[in-house]
């Protein structure tokens, strides 16, 4: 989001949580397995009344700021809406948010039936699918509520999508959560085989009080080594898909800008609207402690104009939190690349968010590897 006249800010991404429940029960999910159970108080699905208010308010904001933004259907699992309600949602959004505003869905892919795909095609909805690699990696954590692996169902959904000429152009990419004990070569090969034009990778969530899975100590570099291995594979591939985190970091080292949150110093404020219409902070803050994603005052799309919310001191404080860094970060040579990391990963009960990211050592390891690659390539070209 960007400031307007020092107060109001323009929206660039709206995370629309249309379902509070999920048909899978992934062991690492920050929504259901990081101690915050506020999802239990939410309606299972966003109602038609809330959908109407969301669409009208977002349309008003688009006309006010006159720059396009993206709406991401999220959850839980957003496709639990079903084809009929999904169509009503997309119709309402498109009526208020014509192109070039984007509508996207982040899904686990299990429910990608033809009737659902028909709706996504009709309203030009980009599709990103969560899959962690080959079955042996994916099914370790991405299980359903009966503890059965979901890989076969996810890949079936991907194949159903990519087999349709009218739908395959909507396939935006896949999103994988890193298991640092896995082989990056196996994961890269499996994700590339999906035909996705873009791969994105997330570290496991954690903080200074609850270290991420697979990280032995805060100084250990298990994730940094894994991503360095991925970097080697990526650079050696003559026909690679895009890998967002590697592209962004290399671009930053070379003096460019990042394109998504998590690295660099560009701000990407995310507006989150819950199934009951409540407006929250970035929901990844649940990783810090229960309620960390809640504003002190309850804001709602039903009662509060977005213009008032975006101009409020509460939103301004939340927006600036990304740049409120620990003292040691300000003097770090790698700050322009890592940006201090995700806010949620900075948390400790003792110091609040006044810490470097718990992945600091991993990020510095990967940045050093990238700088070495660039230096070698420059030497070869000289």
TrEMBL record:
Keyword Iron-sulfur: yes
Gene3D superfamilies the UniProt entry points to: Aldolase class I
UniProt KW keywords: 4Fe-4S, Iron, Iron-sulfur, Metal-binding, S-adenosyl-L-methionine
Domain Radical SAM core: 8-257
Lineage top rank: taxon: Bacteria
Gene Ontology MF terms in the entry: 4 iron, 4 sulfur cluster binding; metal ion binding; oxidoreductase activity
Cross-referenced Pfam families: Radical_SAM
Keyword DNA damage (UniProt): no
Cofactor: [4Fe-4S] cluster
CDD domains associated with the record: Radical_SAM
Signal sequence region: none
InterPro entries, sorted: Aldolase_TIM, MoaA_NifB_PqqE_Fe-S-bd_CS, rSAM, rSAM_sf, Sulphatase_maturase_rSAM
Protein name: Radical SAM protein
Native species: Sphingopyxis lindanitolerans
Lineage: Bacteria, Pseudomonadati, Pseudomonadota, Alphaproteobacteria, Sphingomonadales
